[in-house]
């Protein structure tokens, strides 16, 4: 199953690092979301994402690049496609590989509305193509790894380069889980090409140097 | 002899340069200091070299200098073998700044941006010096000899 988890980036993440290279005058709104509200939203989203997993699975069959229409949905009634067009600077920070997609935006788990104004949040979409068979435990492991990495990278400039470093570290972690046998390939996936190595007999991650 | 003419001319006008001899095609090579490069570029344009054939840069040695190389030639009608010269400017690694020749030869525009992107040599007075090949948010200078590629999954391992 593939799920979405939204994490709050620590306040150390700043756009200041590389913003000198971008043109001035791109309106970037200051973030003014209160911490309590954020915590509430996070809990609600966690409850939603765990409670409606079959529904999400179905929804995630559609290509995620589709932009959702404006809808009024809890927990973020005002969330809609924002800041995606060129007038807002088109700041679309993302890192996409086959199993990990990280966006510097808030993506509503139900409506898939992208809200780019909330750049203090990073959204992780895990394995949208269902190459592996996920259980809630293994999903939580990956989320914990993601949270750890985000804490580790606190203070780095918010740029695609940093998001790609985080995404690559998560991919390496997923590969380590695969080699340790904690996740398996999903034999019913649409594209079964064993992208992280063909299945081997009696193999674990201690047999390779840098897993 | 056609070769050495620029070198003689410069010596005659007492401009500091150092000749690096000839390369395999017989093109004379000169080394110019960074602080003289501004004036010598203008002088060579006035002398007749109106075409910057290419500008490239390379890393001389790990911990050493960064070199910026300019191939100049003169475009004329009816000439079989135009005069050419190759000029190298060496910049120190900790603060590599070289005056830009954009305002003299326009073809240096993208080529100096590429040298900046790959080696980190920053060109003063270049109007839009930013990364041209790597993504804008890249950190590091990829063609330096001491550059280590970060362990991105999609570069190393993805199928």
TrEMBL record, chain A:
Residues 26-83 are annotated as: Disordered. GO terms for cellular component: chloroplast thylakoid membrane. Residues 35-58 have a biased composition (Low complexity). Pfam families: NdhM (PF10664). It is a peripheral membrane protein. Its main location: plastid. GO terms for molecular function: oxidoreductase activity, acting on NAD(P)H, quinone or similar compound as acceptor; quinone binding. InterPro entries: NdhM. It catalyses: a plastoquinone + NADH + (n+1) H(+)(in) = a plastoquinol + NAD(+) + n H(+)(out); a plastoquinone + NADPH + (n+1) H(+)(in) = a plastoquinol + NADP(+) + n H(+)(out). Keywords: Membrane, NAD, NADP, Plastoquinone, Quinone, Translocase. It is found in: Plastid, Chloroplast thylakoid membrane. Belongs to the NDH complex subunit M family. Part of the chloroplast NDH complex, composed of a mixture of chloroplast and nucleus encoded subunits. Component of the NDH subcomplex A, at least composed of ndhH, ndhI, ndhJ, ndhK, ndhL, ndhM, ndhN and ndhO. NDH shuttles electrons from NAD(P)H:plastoquinone, via FMN and iron-sulfur (Fe-S) centers, to quinones in the photosynthetic chain and possibly in a chloroplast respiratory chain. The immediate electron acceptor for the enzyme in this species is believed to be plastoquinone. Couples the redox reaction to proton translocation, and thus conserves the redox energy in a proton gradient. This is NAD(P)H-quinone oxidoreductase subunit M, chloroplastic. It comes from Canna indica (Indian-shot).
Automatic annotation (TrEMBL), chain B:
NDH-1 is composed of 14 different subunits. Subunits NuoB, C, D, E, F, and G constitute the peripheral sector of the complex. It holds the Pfam family Complex1_30kDa. One of its GO terms (cellular component) is plasma membrane. The lineage of its organism: Eukaryota, Viridiplantae, Streptophyta, Embryophyta, Tracheophyta. It is a peripheral membrane protein. The keyword NAD applies. PANTHER family: NADH DEHYDROGENASE [UBIQUINONE] IRON-SULFUR PROTEIN 3, MITOCHONDRIAL, NADH DEHYDROGENASE UBIQUINONE IRON-SULFUR PROTEIN 3. SUPFAM superfamilies: Nqo5-like. GO terms for molecular function: NADH dehydrogenase (quinone) (non-electrogenic) activity; NADH dehydrogenase (ubiquinone) activity; quinone binding. Keywords: Cell membrane, Chloroplast, Membrane, NAD, Plastid, Quinone, Translocase, Transport, Ubiquinone. InterPro entries: NADH_DH_suC, NADH_quin_OxRdtase_su_C/D-like, NADH_UbQ_OxRdtase_30kDa_su, NADH_UbQ_OxRdtase_CS. Its main location: membrane. The keyword Lipid biosynthesis does not apply. Its EC number is 7.1.1.-. Residues 31-149 form the NADH:ubiquinone oxidoreductase 30kDa subunit domain. PROSITE patterns: COMPLEX1_30K (PS00542). This is NADH-quinone oxidoreductase subunit C. Core subunit of the mitochondrial membrane respiratory chain NADH dehydrogenase (Complex I) that is believed to belong to the minimal assembly required for catalysis. Complex I functions in the transfer of electrons from NADH to the respiratory chain. The immediate electron acceptor for the enzyme is believed to be ubiquinone. It is an enzyme of class 7 (translocase). It is found in: Cell membrane. It catalyses: a quinone + NADH + 5 H(+)(in) = a quinol + NAD(+) + 4 H(+)(out); a ubiquinone + NADH + 5 H(+)(in) = a ubiquinol + NAD(+) + 4 H(+)(out). Belongs to the complex I 30 kDa subunit family. It comes from Canna indica (Indian-shot).
